[in-house]
Amino acid sequence: MTGLASLPVLQLVTPVSACGSYFANVYDGTSYGGTYYQICQGSSYSDLSSIGWDNRISSIDQTLQTGHGFIYYTGPTYTDSSFKACGTQSYPSLGSTFNNAISSILSTTSCPDRDSGDWRRDDRLPG
């Protein structure tokens, strides 16, 4: 009979995102409920219908590097109403203008540094 020292050691590993450490999760339910889709930092989608996510997003939780963000548009090909979310942001609800109305997402590196005094959360969204 062998001792416990000879048994293999199992390591619990947190699953790694396909995007690495920087991404946005968009959810079809408010408060990060329901199904989600992960968007990697630097990725853009001119027409969310191509991945089955047109007019489905109800909440957003993103973790991006300083200076990076996404612009969320209600029209395809980056048109119509929009809001910019920079860096790490959480939006448990999107308000009547953007809830289930986002049709395209544009990656941007034109986000000011949060410490510069120029950064602010988009005031068109609740929270």
List the helices and strands and how they pair.
Elements: E1 23-27, E2 36-40, E3 59-63, E4 69-75, E5 79-86, E6 89-91, H1 95-98, E7 104-108
Strand residues, percent: 25-35%
Q: Return Rg in Å.
A: 18 Å
> Can you identify the CATH class?
Mainly Beta
Based on DSSP secondary structure assignment, what is the total number of beta strands?
7
Described by strand count, sense and barrel closure, the largest sheet is:
4 strands, antiparallel
Runs in which pLDDT lies below 50 for 5 or more consecutive residues are 115-120
User: What does the overall shape look like?
Assistant: globular
Query: If helices are DSSP runs of H or I spanning 4 or more residues, what is the number of helices?
Result: 1
Number of domains: 1
Q: Quote the average pLDDT.
A: 84
CATH evolutionary superfamily: Crystallins
| Biggest sheet, spatial arrangement of strands | 2-1-3-6
Descriptive account of the structure:
With 127 residues, the protein is mainly β. The model is unreliable at 115-120 (pLDDT under 50). The longest helix is centred in the C-terminal third of the chain and has 4 residues, at 95-98. It contains 1 helix and 7 strands; from the N terminus they run ββββββαβ. The chain starts with 22 loop residues before the first strand and ends in a 19-residue tail after the last strand. It has a 4-stranded antiparallel beta sheet, with no helix packed on it. The protein has a 3-stranded antiparallel beta sheet with strand order 5-4-7, with no helix packed on it. Strand 4 (69-75) and strand 5 form a beta hairpin. The protein has a single domain, classed as Sandwich (Gamma-B Crystallin, domain 1). The protein is globular, with a radius of gyration of 18 Å.
